[in-house]
Amino acid sequence: MSLFTTSKTRMPAPDQALPGRDRVMPVPDRHLVLGRPLVPPFPAATERVLIGMGCFWGAERLLWSLPGIWVTAVGYAGGFTANPTYEEVCSGRTGHNEVVQVVFDPADLAFEALLKVFWDSHDPTQGMRQGNDVGTQYRSGLYVTSAAQRLAAEESRSAFGRKLAAAGFGAITTEIGEDPIFYYAEDYHQQYLARNPNGYCGLAGTGVKCG
């Protein structure tokens, strides 16, 4: 049987998902690198978007390094289970994606520039996986927080898709959704590659520098 036909690559139905819990995951008070609060309220001038591009460790390090980023945090979104644990998400029974919550200042980082980094830094054609990481939690995703963001995301997906098609690549499978509930991941996942500089970075296979 192919590795990619397991149940972990199929989204569960809502009534099949794990029930979760009411308890919110505790997270550190401050970003380990940027020194800013991980939880709202965020400055009024900032915008927020959730980005899924495979394992969230490497994605977060790439994103927090961009100019104009106010803060990042990793977590789970796009599924059904309330306040899931990492183990539950990895089971494939929550429907959640591993995502990075990105809070940015559009005066210093245009959303279109952030989208370019997104498309250039992973393979958005792989469905329920990213490289060797297989499962629904590794799908490509953009979860927007405004109508303007959604329009820009959809337009950029179409434009990048045309370029991929011209180069002989497959269709984009990126999921674009609107502001689902963001559940913070466990504290040891937050800024994981700042704590563990030689740790696993799933972006390495895309040509993005992981260190």
Automatic annotation (TrEMBL):
Keywords noted in UniProt: Oxidoreductase
GO MF, any single term: peptide-methionine (S)-S-oxide reductase activity
Enzyme Commission number(s): 1.8.4.11
Similarity comment: family membership: Belongs to the MsrA Met sulfoxide reductase family.
Pfam family, one: PMSR
Entry annotation: catalytic residues: C55
Enzyme superclass (EC): oxidoreductase
Keyword Plastid: no
HAMAP family (UniProt xref): MsrA (MF_01401)
Reactions catalysed according to its record: [thioredoxin]-disulfide + L-methionine + H2O = L-methionine (S)-S-oxide + [thioredoxin]-dithiol; L-methionyl-[protein] + [thioredoxin]-disulfide + H2O = L-methionyl-(S)-S-oxide-[protein] + [thioredoxin]-dithiol
Record domain Peptide methionine sulphoxide reductase MsrA: where: 49-201
Role: Has an important function as a repair enzyme for proteins that have been inactivated by oxidation. Catalyzes the reversible oxidation-reduction of methionine sulfoxide in proteins to methionine.
Alphabetized NCBIfam families for the sequence: msrA (TIGR00401)
Region of interest called Disordered, as start-end residue ranges on this chain: 1-21
Designated name of the protein: Peptide methionine sulfoxide reductase MsrA
Superkingdom assignment: Bacteria
